[in-house]
User: Fold Redox-sensitive transcriptional activator SoxR from Vibrio spartinae.
Amino acid sequence: MQKKIMPEWISVGMLSERTGVAVSALHFYEKKGLIKSHRNASNHRQYPKHIIRIVSLIQVAQRTGFSLDDILSELEGLPNRTRVTLEDWEALGVRWRQELDKKIIQLTELRDMMTDCIGCGCLSLERCRLLNPDDQLGEKGAGPHRMSQ
Ligand code: FES
Assistant:
């Protein structure tokens, strides 16, 4: 069987088929500025074929817990916004791994605090580290304080 040669420009349907991402999600990515299309003479959206790599990268980043805003910020920092090179991917991988390590530490701390709360239910600002970590509200002085605004 002869291997199909991918055209330089692909439709949203083909992009969806190649990445496994729903057309509606691809439109959402475009609305958020993560990917860009051009209109052909028939006014249909066309994407450069190398956008497949960017959509794949977005999927990986989302699976590892990054928000679309974080991903957009990373993509905007790439030397060439439209193409992701192996070097770009390696640099992103290192940064994302560091972020994941931080998140793991934070979540482990939260899990350990949660363990103290299980079966307690006091939700005391003085006692509960989950509700008031490091007594942040105490630093604001005596009296009532809002937790968030
Ligand atoms: S609910 Fe009581 S210590 Fe957190």
Observations:
- Residues 116-117, 120-124, 127-128, 130 surround FE2/S2 (inorganic) cluster (CB under 6 Å).
- The mean pLDDT is 87.
- Helices lie at 12-19, 23-32, 51-63, 68-76, 86-117.
- Residues 86-117 form the longest helix (32 residues).
